[in-house]
Amino acid sequence: MGKKFITIVFSALFIFTLAGCSSSNAGGASSSQSTNNSTQSSSSNNSSSTSKQSLKTALENELSGFTKVEQYIKKSDYELADTLAGQLHDEFHTAILPPLQAKKGATYAENVHAQYDALQNAITNKNLSQIKSLVKVNRTNLYTVAKILGVSLN
């Protein structure tokens, strides 16, 4: 059920991200160029704003997911924790890793990414102390990444 919910949420987010706004040029030939320039500028700002909002949503989903992973672990439900950690890992690859690589480089991004791998391994191995430590590390990393990418989190 949780996997379906996350899939639906991400699908809706993806559709809304792609939807965008359109504008029509109702003016004559002389106003067409100024409208076109204005639309390009506005479109660029909307794209940046939409991108930041998508990134913020992804980061917040990740943070919320880590809380749920902790809850599943407390209940000794390692299977659900592992499934959710895999979904978080996938979302990290899709939404967070590309802009992080663009901003800080592949080496930095891979160091952050490695902590996701380590968390999944700890959950698979049911290593409670590592899980607790790596959830904390990954959560801290996400707040750092948010700052790097210019996204403010609640």
Write a short abstract of this structure.
The chain is an all-alpha fold and 154 residues long. The chain has helices spanning 2-19, 29-74, 78-104, 106-124, 128-148. Helix 2 packs antiparallel against helix 3 (78-104), helix 3 packs antiparallel against helix 4 (106-124) and helix 4 (106-124) runs antiparallel to helix 5 (128-148).
Please give a handful of descriptors for the protein shown.
single chain; 154 residues; mainly alpha; 5 helices
Describe this entry's structure for a reader:
With 154 residues, the chain is mostly helical. It is built from 5 helices and no strands. 21% of the residues are buried. The model is unreliable at 9-44 (pLDDT under 50).
Give me the secondary-structure topology.
Layout: H1 2-19, H2 29-74, H3 78-104, H4 106-124, H5 128-148
Strand content: under 5%
Query: Would you tell me the overall average pLDDT?
Result: 79
Give the termini separation.
Answer: 27 Å
Rg, Å, rounded: 19 Å
Order of helices and strands: HHHHH
Low-confidence stretches: 9-44
Percent helix, as a range, is over 70%
What shape does the CA trace take?
globular
Main β sheet profile? none
Structural class by secondary-structure content: mainly alpha
Number of helices: 5
Q: What's the number of extended β-strand segments?
A: 0
